[in-house]
Amino acid sequence: MSESRREASEIPSSFLAEPADLTLETLDERNPRSIPAPPSGGVRYAVEGLLGRGGMASVYRAFDRQLERPVALKVLDGAFAEPYLQEARAQARVRHDNVLEVYEAGELEGRPYIAMRFVAGPSLLELKRLPLEPKLRLLAQVAEGLHAAHRAGLLHRDVKPSNILVERLPDGDLRPYVADFGIALALEASDSGAAPLAGTPGYMAPEQLRGDGPVDRRADVYGLGATACELLTGRLPGGQRALEPLLAPLPREVAAIVRKCLAAEPPARYPSARSVAEDLHRYLNGEVVEAHAAGLAHRLTKLVLRHRVLAAVIGLATLGILTALVVAALSGWSAIRANERAVARREQAEALIEFMLGDLRTKLQATSRLELLDAVGDKALDYFAAVPPAELSVGELSRWARALYQIGDVRIRQGNLAAAKEPLGQSLALAAELVERSPDASEPLFELGQSHFWVGYVAWKQRDFSTASRHFLAYRDISRRLAAAEPDNADYRLELHYATSNLGSLLEGEGQLTRAVEAFQEALAVIEPLVAADPTRADRRFELAAAHNALGAPLLALGRPAEALEHFLADVAIREQLVAAAPQSLRDREFLAVSQVYVAKALLALGRAAEAEAQAGQAVRSLEALVAEDVEHAERQFRLAAAVLESGRAALARGLLDQAETAFRRHLKLVEKLSATNPADEAWRRQLGVAHVFLGRMLIEKAPQEARRAAERALKILAPATTPGSSRPNRWAAEASLLLAELEAAAGRPDGARAAVEQALTHLGPEAEKAEDAETVATWERAAVQLAALR
User: Fold this and answer.
1) Which one of the listed residues 158, 173, 359, 588 is annotated catalytic?
2) Which of 469, 508, 677, 725 has its CA 20 to 30 A from that of 310?
3) For 544-569, what is each residue's pLDDT tens digit?
4) Catalytic annotation on 158?
């Protein structure tokens, strides 16, 4: 039985076993009240039965006749409508997969109600029988939901297990929903100190209970910690002294996470719910947990990020690794295992390696100072080399494989692909050893697939397509094997989608467009049923949109624009839905604009220039707005440049020459700025060359000298990038040469024109005549015709 199916089998069938909104403001068990009868539901809703009852409201299961879906109706037992309208407004502001969705609010028979998503599952409180890791995964999702609420400007103020509902999805996974924002408070109100006393005592932060000042999102972090304590130990914390005996049976790292959430003073807690989720994921991934990083690791972080003597700090960091390395070399591995102090020292060294290459790497990445970890990576490699893999336990092999990957990741991010190959290759070897030891286990096989991907990725970036293809195929085959062995495991099916899509990208880059289409078709076929199984998953719908786009690109390159347009339009339709559901999502808005650019490309290829210009223009306007929100976001500026180029191409096709020239000049200016900030970025430099080609061709008659300068600059950029099999860079270098040939011919220099055309054919290579890329073939045909005319 798969992990997800085993988790699902533990779910009880009851729903909302405890009241939904028992707060200090509303609950008074000593004064029983009269409970009104259920509302009729009116024309819209068919009320089916009571689900739960709180201090001021009752929750009913109902059926929405208009939209034909089950809903949960939370109906106020009295007539005080404003607090419930406040709850509806508050909860509706938060759009996240782990926050209970509010559909609408209104009145039934004079009683205010809120219609919410119906969750056919229990509250978190009823899942105490689940194993530890599934519980932690649920808690991580709850933390993400809370973080979304905080980002929307809300404090929940009553985080507890009975306010978290859990649903079993069609694929067997569990999804929690944070519910009951009845006493939620705007963050700005909490900052002002205006928060009234509200919540459930056992889950309230000390500052909430005191009621003597403002509270912030760390109060919800405390509630999350109390919820975790109850879920994991069966009891509420009951104060700091009573906490330690409760946490003792838990793994140290998990206990540290709960302890940090429940710190008495807000500054000692996690700064955000997202930070809690990240630490939980670190534990689940076998990485060093930030809350558990003690002494030296904690001090090193502060030193590295705040002090100037950084080299000395890294020297301190490597000291523990060096100590363990010396002990391993002099004493022998068997002696180390026999000596408890040496074993402890080795474990500390490994923990330090994971911390430095994991958490600290993340922090340093934000400051662009990853080179500070170079010494740590070198010493770690020496440390691992001191012990033969055969003498390592399965757990040690797994940890070391992960650490080696982290070294490779640091070097990839530094742009040092050559240095990344050694640790990634060693990580692959260890992953293969793990599979040999546990041939029937899924997790080691999954890790082996990941290792194949990263080794292949480095080869791909180094343009070693043969090596990249071998590893990407291995990655795909492993993903197929995992998906076949556990067809109900959505994660493995999603991994197969990624594997086939990556292979398609590699094949597309090699110019093997037909095979790329086949790979992308498989990727699309894998993701479609995952989305159909749960259409509410925005992340999967995002991947479905990307799959349509990925398939459309090689179809367009093959000269099949009508087919490509179908997929690009499907991509746009999904992204429009995502933007409508989460208009605040900058990423969704950005990718919608990118998708519109692809639609414009296909429309232009079909001769529908006016429609293409409209699509490109919309993309330009959207990306301009996004760039204005973050003027430092280079990738958005690059995408804006691409949209501007497409608008220029559409204007040129319509004969709007001045408009086209303006667009091409703007495109050049945007890409020049980007390329100046990072000259090593190949994509930006290549686009700079393309920009010169377009502007130069536009100016052949109007300004031939400027056109010549553009052609020469394009060649200087593009010619060094040409390699056998790289159809697109080669094609644009050829286009620059053909532009120069036309200028030479116009100036009455046929020999110069002939030499430029011959150079264009050299850039294209002998395989261009039979290339699958329709534009490459078209460029070759133009060059061949021009050469024949010049002879």
Assistant:
1) 158
2) 677
3) 999 999 999 999 999 999 999 999 99
4) yes
